Amino acid sequence: AAAPPQADAVGGVVLDRVSKRYGGQAAVDDLSLEIRPGEFLSLLGPSGCGKTTTLRMIAGFEHPDAGDIRISGRSVIGQAPYRRDVNTVFQAYALFPHMTVAQNVAYGLHERRVARVELRARVAEALAMVQMRRFADRKPSQLSGGQQQRVALARALVNRPAVLLLDEPLAALDRKLREEMQLELKLIQAKLGLTFVFVTHDQAEALSMSDRIAVMRDGRIEQLDDATTIYRAPVSAYVASFVGQQNFFSGVVSAVGGEVQTSYGPISTVSTGLSVGQRVRAAVRPEFVELATGSPPGDTNRVEGRLIGVSHLGEAQQYLVQLGPELSVIARVATPLAPKLQIGESVWCSWRAESVQLFPDDEPIATG
Ligand code: ATP
């Protein structure tokens, strides 16, 4: 397929019907993807869906069995990794322990025989970008995990690749540091205008950083969209459950327009185009569920249950309401508005028809 010229410009990446099999198993299955120059694109999905294999094929560490890969408009099939206009940052930073920070960052430039004056300037510039200049003379063992990861980033940036490939680079960091680095990575990417291809299984990370997210499943892309669309308009129950939380109700489309019969009562929706009798899953995000101790008005979109848990998330409170032995509903309310409820208390959950999304009930729910 012909890619739009943008993805074939300098810094763009095109995967055209790429497949990779291990034994009899397809790790990547006829995957096509166009990444624009300067874009922050995440490959998101559960373990084993083919994210890393995809990234390694762009890097040149793995070779596709079929399909074409183009970087900056040129096919890289058969081209060695070091000849491609990309650099990879791995989760395990793999710094040379006997070298200083500056020597680690300079290593690639040495190999390419960059002149001494230029080399020094570029190392200083790369270290400044990741705020590590004052650690230039330290050994990796004298750095924290976050600082080591910054050095690994500087080592990739110093080569000035058009495309930076990142394979779960923040996974080893503790949560607070990871969130700080997410912000910094995004700032560096925006400032340099580099193309970032970022592999993660962490949906919150993908949502917070990416221009676009490719949600992967079994070696294919299930949905490719910006974060807002992925979250608000997932194309399948798989995406809906992998990105953010969902309450799912199984049911059957009833004869009443836009209504679904479930064992917990009728759910009304604004969905159209469903056939009567079709089995569906109705999905409602926790932030759309309202809580009340009395019965809310109306006959649909309300269920009664017992409050079995409250968790404090900081900015919000999360309530777990058990409807029956098999099903509970999660409700999330911004902390300033959160009602004071007793565990064991009977509560009503309700939501608006506009908040309900329907998916065919023929697919498994993602776990990740
Ligand atoms: P994770 O987040 O766990 O790394 P992933 O989404 O990156 O998962 P891949 O590492 O790309 O997934 O693996 C995709 C599939 O290919 C998996 O089923 C995996 O077991 C298989 N696979 C990957 N590399 C190899 C290999 N070198 N040999 C055999 N099978 C492999």
From TrEMBL:
SMART domains listed in its UniProt record: AAA
Subunit structure: The complex is composed of two ATP-binding proteins (PotA), two transmembrane proteins (PotB and PotC) and a solute-binding protein (PotD).
Recorded superkingdom: Bacteria
Domain ABC transporter: 13-243
This enzyme's EC code(s): 7.6.2.11
Keywords associated with the record: ATP-binding, Cell membrane, Membrane, Nucleotide-binding, Translocase, Transport
PANTHER family associated with the record: SPERMIDINE/PUTRESCINE IMPORT ATP-BINDING PROTEIN POTA, SPERMIDINE_PUTRESCINE IMPORT ATP-BINDING PROTEIN POTA
Described function: Part of the ABC transporter complex PotABCD involved in spermidine/putrescine import. Responsible for energy coupling to the transport system.
Gene that encodes the chain: potA2
GO molecular function, one term: ATP binding
Family indicated by similarity: Belongs to the ABC transporter superfamily. Spermidine/putrescine importer (TC 3.A.1.11.1) family.
Catalytic activity: ATP + H2O + polyamine-[polyamine-binding protein]Side 1 = ADP + phosphate + polyamineSide 2 + [polyamine-binding protein]Side 1
Cellular component aspect of the GO annotation: ATP-binding cassette (ABC) transporter complex
NCBIfam families in alphabetical order: potA (TIGR01187)
Entry-linked Pfam families: ABC_tran, TOBE_2
The protein's enzyme class: translocase
Natural source organism: Agromyces mediolanus
SUPFAM superfamilies: MOP-like, P-loop containing nucleoside triphosphate hydrolases
Protein name: Spermidine/putrescine import ATP-binding protein PotA
Record lineage: Bacteria, Bacillati, Actinomycetota, Actinomycetes, Micrococcales
Record InterPro entries: AAA+_ATPase (IPR003593), ABC_SmlMolc_Importer (IPR050093), ABC_transporter-like_ATP-bd (IPR003439), ABC_transporter-like_CS (IPR017871), Mo/tungstate-bd_C_term_dom (IPR008995), P-loop_NTPase (IPR027417), PotA-like (IPR005893), Transp-assoc_OB_typ2 (IPR013611)
